[in-house]
Amino acid sequence: MRDLILLALWLLPPSRVKNRLLRSFGHRIAPKAIARANLVWRVRSFEMAPSSRISSGNLIKGLRAVKIAEHATIGKNNVITANAAYARISNGGRLELGEHAYITSRHSMDCSGSLFVGGFSAVAGHGTQVLTHSVDLARNAQSAYPVVIGERTFVGARCLLLGGATLPARSVLAAGSVLTHGERSEQGLWAGVPARFKTPMTGLWFDRTVGSTTEIYVPEAQQVPESHPQGSSAG
Questions:
Q1: 224 occurs within a structural domain
Q2: Are strands 154-155 and 122-123 parallel, antiparallel or unpaired?
Q3: Number of folded domains in the chain?
Q4: Fewer C-beta within 10 Å: the chain N or C terminus?
Q5: CATH number where 78 lies
Q6: Whose CA is closest to 133, among 121, 122, 142?
Q7: What's the whole-model pTM score?
């Protein structure tokens, strides 16, 4: 019955009343968090810090815990799930976003082995897949390993991140790349199938003080105008 009530509450439009009702059923949703209508099913613990945001149309199912830090954002129409077996394991079935981190829209994320997105990082574009669990052929068993996206990193469109993969802080995973199991230390551009280190990178994006980017570069003028109409956030 609790699951059905929470499902109905999550389908309500965003409001402080909705947040208060979710808190009454054990979730930790800050009064000023924005939680739009989403399908949330059998998520044991859901925490949203002040000024965090979830847009509409997401499917979030079977996780042990979701934790969204201050000013972090999940966009629209993402599929975020975990295998029920791993949600019962203490370190499994978790999704955690650091402060000012954001996930854009239309991504698919298997969090069975857990997914950790560092502060000021972005899973940008569309169509990225995170697959934290698979069959271990040597052991003939299912296995799951966490995926860690370091602080101030940028994941391009249509990437694939496999269980046990780590993207170092202040790095970029180029669009279409495949990041496989393994610890990595070089900070910079990672690209290819499988992704390999290419070159160090610098830029204002890595040192920004807010999560999303609203500035617009005009190629013809080769500059960012000092003022322009504020639009939707860009990656």
A1: no
A2: parallel
A3: 1
A4: N
A5: 2.160.10.10
A6: 142
A7: 0.90
